[in-house]
């Protein structure tokens, strides 16, 4: 199973912001949309960073609420690990585990086309295990 199959099922919509967005606005969007990360893109929809709720908590916790007026580009993670639609779910699980990532942007032709979260991966794996279990039960019952 590939990443493309997951994002095709869940949708390609990704909430994005630009680097100049104030951290306060980004934090509001994270809370309002109940998401854990927001992708930072340039005018060509190329990924230039990612801002997670962890990033917000870290900077505000260390430096105080005055940092909420800073632009996201001062806080975001710049070295973003991305994947393509052709990557397998197994590969993404390994990447997420090794890097301790909860969100990975999906990029095709250098442009953002989706995002995959650890929740998406777990949901996919649970469904896959249920299908296998059902198939085994059917096999046993008909043998």
Automatic annotation (TrEMBL):
Pfam families, per the entry: CBS
Every CBS domain range: 8-68, 76-133
SMART domains named among the record's database cross-references: CBS
UniProt keyword rRNA processing, yes or no: no
InterPro entries listed in its UniProt record: CBS_dom, CBS_dom_sf, CBSX3_CBS_dom, Diverse_CBS-Domain
Keyword hit for Transmembrane helix: no
Keyword terms, alphabetized: CBS domain
SUPFAM superfamilies: CBS-domain pair
PANTHER family given in the database record: CBS DOMAIN-CONTAINING PROTEIN, CBS DOMAIN-CONTAINING PROTEIN CBSX3, MITOCHONDRIAL
Protein name: CBS domain-containing protein
């Amino acid at each position: 199973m590939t990443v493309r199959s997951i994002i095709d099922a869940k949708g390609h919509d990704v909430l994005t912001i630009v680097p100049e967005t104030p951290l306060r606005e980004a934090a509001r969007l994270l809370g309002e949309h109940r998401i854990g990360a927001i992708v930072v893109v340039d005018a060509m929809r190329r990924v230039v960073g990612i801002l997670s709720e962890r990033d917000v908590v870290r900077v505000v916790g260390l430096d105080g609420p005055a940092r909420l007026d800073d632009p996201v580009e001062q806080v975001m993670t710049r070295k973003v690990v991305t994947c393509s639609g052709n990557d397998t779910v197994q590969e993404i699980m390994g990447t997420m585990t090794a890097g301790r990532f909860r969100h990975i942007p999906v990029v095709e032709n250098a442009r953002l086309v989706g995002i995959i979260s650890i929740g998406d991966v777990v949901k996919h794996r649970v469904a896959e295990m249920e299908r296998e279990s059902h198939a085994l039960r059917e096999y046993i019952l008909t043998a």
